[in-house]
């Protein structure tokens, strides 16, 4: 089955950390650039992190630069998002996306609140 499965979301206090995972199956994961998006109700889905297919290139939106790190483990067919110094405005549903295959994960909720 061709799919991406997002996991790792939850409730965290401001200033805390969280690691999201996105596990892939059914396609050649290693050939795909991978993206993380997030979305809050009433707003468009926002692309904020990307990693190249060989893992040597990453890009971040200014809103997360220096706080979030995207990485991948092709042996595990998994992309990760390490989030630190979390802020209430980071609250959103987080999605991974494989643009080569136009494939989305189902999303995982991250809530930053005291």
What descriptors fit this protein?
mainly beta; 7-stranded mixed sheet; globular
Description:
By secondary structure, the chain is mainly β. Helices cover 0% and strands 50% of the residues. The chain is built from no helices and eleven strands. Strands 2, 4, 5, 6, 9, 10 and 11 form a seven-stranded mixed sheet that branches. β5 and β6 (58-60) form a beta hairpin. It is globular. The model has no long low-confidence stretch (mean pLDDT 95).
In a few lines, what is going on in this structure?
The protein is mainly beta and 114 residues long. The protein has no helices and eleven strands.
- Regarding quaternary structure, what we see is single chain
- Structural class from helices and strands? mainly beta
State the end-to-end CA separation: 39 Å
What proportion of the residues is helical, as a percent range? under 10%
Shape category: globular
Mean pLDDT: 95
Order of helices and strands: EEEEEEEEEEE
Biggest pleated sheet = 7 strands, mixed
What is the number of strand segments?
Answer: 11
Strand content: over 45%
Count of alpha/pi helices = 0
Overall radius of gyration: 13 Å
Low-confidence stretches: none
